[in-house]
């Protein structure tokens, strides 16, 4: 409670502008000969990036400013002789245009609908929004009319850097403080999202008296993932084929926070699963390579050290599985040894199912590198046709580096990153795992997630799952000019677990089934056989526009 001290406030854009003017007119002006000889400074060829938090203890408001050459992709150009235009960090293609890449389109128009911020897709419905601080979020997520989640949202994106330079070694970026939603960028048709996707404007109110609009900064599209969701080919006894294309609805936004670009996806599958995924790209961060710099990264260019960093992404999942009251259950396996009943002298090792109800918040808090049950799910108070508790399973995809040592004076500000999964009772006074004020005073955090976990009972309660997914990034030469998304994707899956009596995707209109005795070229038997007739022509794509500049 109480007022937030003024020194914790995030820096405003106007403050950054004032700092820039101060550096140019006061600091740089005080050493013109040094800047000319060392930087070849001409008043325009230097860029800078601030570090955060601002200082080393509570109350500090001191910042390191890292100086770069002001060229395209300056993040990997620590001060040295300025490169000519089009040097190694430029994203300008090195090859001429050739045959057009494959395109995706809907042969009979979109199969989803958007009304204001509400989306309908097959058995799914949900509302979407954009927080200026935390970015893309979903509310009232329902499948087949039944609520699965009250809220699914991004909470924070943390980066912890290492370097032998002051700026690099002191950097711990909490991107929510800068504004993941605020720095959501307009999308490029055909690259950031499929060309024929539905593009939505977003609005925010930050540092201005009136809202600002970012055109085409969110996209929604159905995507054919190019593989079956399920299939079987039978050539034993009966001859048949059955399958279903894996087509899913994607809601996407992209945020550019400094050198980092994040591709944020929420994906809705036909079997009732939801995926939350983030792909990281953008530029590596760097320091000037000197001394023992190779202890903290790899050499990327002549004087460029790509600095090691950890990335941690935190999500909030306020699930309501079969109702508001849920319990947390863990299923896993163990091998047991038994004698073969038909041959008692022989021993068989067989896997068996293990079950455990996790009764308290302490039991449901799984440290980052600890073993977590492979099937862990929110269980409803109702059962399916086969007598099992209906549930939704949480599955995490993560390659996280180590967490900041808990002995650190600033660790409590990011204590959510201790846990790959923590399940707590839902409380109105615990709406978020962090605060925008934690960035500039992590030593006295406004919100400390560790305080949420106090061993309260979580059996038959309104529960929230807090998920941390992350990866370790050691920049390498292939991060020049910038980092690719391949292999840099983490997140979570929510999957129905005994929630239904059978796979709900069996009711999809996209299913394909035919036997050896049927004419599988007939449209009434196999709709895919009609594609040459019904979907052979491309639609009229809208003209290319872009509102990012």
UniProtKB/TrEMBL annotation:
Contains 1 topaquinone per subunit. GO terms for biological process: amine metabolic process. GO terms for cellular component: plasma membrane. Residues 104-506 form the Copper amine oxidase catalytic domain. InterPro entries: Cu_Am_Ox_Cu-bd, Cu_amine_oxidase, Cu_amine_oxidase_C, Cu_amine_oxidase_C_sf, Cu_amine_oxidase_N-reg, Cu_amine_oxidase_N3. Topaquinone (TPQ) is generated by copper-dependent autoxidation of a specific tyrosyl residue. Residues 9-79 form the Copper amine oxidase N3-terminal domain. It comes from the Eukaryota. Keywords: Copper, Metal-binding, Oxidoreductase, TPQ. GO terms for molecular function: copper ion binding; primary methylamine oxidase activity; quinone binding. Its cofactor is Cu cation. It is an enzyme of class 1 (oxidoreductase). Its EC number is 1.4.3.-. Belongs to the copper/topaquinone oxidase family. This is Amine oxidase. It comes from Phaethon lepturus (White-tailed tropicbird).
């Amino acid at each position: 409670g109480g007022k937030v001290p003024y020194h914790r406030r995030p820096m405003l854009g106007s403050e950054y502008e004032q700092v820039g003017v101060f550096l140019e007119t006061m600091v740089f002006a005080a050493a013109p000969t040094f800047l000319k000889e060392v930087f070849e400074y001409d008043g325009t060829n230097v860029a800078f990036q601030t570090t955060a938090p601002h200082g080393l203890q509570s109350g500090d408001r001191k910042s390191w400013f890292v100086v770069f050459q002001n060229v395209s992709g300056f993040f990997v150009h620590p001060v040295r002789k300025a490169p000519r235009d089009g040097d190694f960090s430029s994203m300008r293609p090195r090859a001429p245009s050739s045959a057009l890449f494959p395109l995706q389109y809907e042969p009979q128009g979109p199969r989803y609908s958007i009304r204001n911020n509400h989306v309908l897709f097959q058995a799914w419905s949900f509302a979407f929004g954009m927080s200026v601080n935390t970015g893309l979020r979903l509310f009232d997520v329902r499948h087949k009319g039944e609520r699965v989640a009250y809220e699914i949202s991004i909470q924070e994106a943390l980066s912890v850097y290492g370097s032998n330079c002051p700026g690099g070694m002191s950097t711990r970026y909490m991107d929510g403080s800068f504004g993941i939603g605020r720095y959501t960028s307009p999308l490029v048709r055909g690259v950031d999202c499929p060309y024929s996707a539905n593009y939505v404007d977003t609005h925010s109110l930050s540092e201005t008296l009136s809202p600002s609009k970012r055109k085409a900064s969110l996209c929604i599209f159905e995507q054919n993932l190019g593989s079956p969701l399920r299939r079987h080919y039978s050539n034993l006894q009966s001859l048949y084929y059955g399958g279903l294309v894996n087509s899913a609805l994607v809601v996407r936004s992209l945020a550019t926070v400094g050198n980092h670009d994040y591709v944020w996806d929420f994906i809705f599958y036909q079997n009732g699963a939801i995926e939350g995924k983030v792909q990281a790209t953008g530029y590596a961060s760097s320091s000037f390579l000197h001394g023992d710099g190779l202890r903290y990264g790899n050499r990327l260019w002549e004087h460029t050290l790509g600095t090691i960093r950890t990335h941690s992404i935190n999500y909030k999942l306020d699930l309501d599985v079969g109702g508001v009251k849920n319990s947390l259950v863990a299923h896993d396996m163990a091998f047991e040894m038994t004698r073969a009943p038909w041959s008692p002298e022989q021993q068989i090792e067989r896997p068996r199912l293990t079950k455990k109800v996790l009764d308290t918040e302490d039991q449901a808090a799984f440290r980052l590198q600890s073993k977590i049950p492979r099937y862990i799910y929110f269980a409803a108070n109702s059962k399916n046709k086969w007598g099992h508790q209906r549930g939704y399973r949480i599955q995490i995809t993560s390659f996280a580096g180590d967490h900041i040592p808990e002995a650190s004076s600033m660790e409590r500000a990011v204590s959510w990153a201790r846990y790959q999964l923590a399940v707590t009772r839902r409380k109105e006074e615990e709406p978020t795992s962090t605060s925008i004020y934690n960035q500039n005073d992590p030593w006295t955090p406004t919100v400390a997630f560790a305080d949420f976990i106090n061993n309260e009972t979580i059996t038959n309660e309104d529960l929230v799952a807090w998920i941390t997914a992350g990866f370790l990034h050691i920049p390498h030469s292939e991060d020049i000019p910038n980092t690719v998304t391949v292999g840099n994707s983490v997140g979570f899956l929510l999957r129905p677990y005994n929630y239904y009596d059978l796979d709900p995707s069996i009711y999809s209109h996209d299913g394909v089934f035919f036997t050896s005795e049927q004419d599988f070229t007939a449209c009434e038997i196999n709709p895919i056989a009609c594609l040459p007739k019904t979907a052979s022509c491309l639609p009229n794509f809208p003209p290319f526009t872009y509102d990012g500049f």
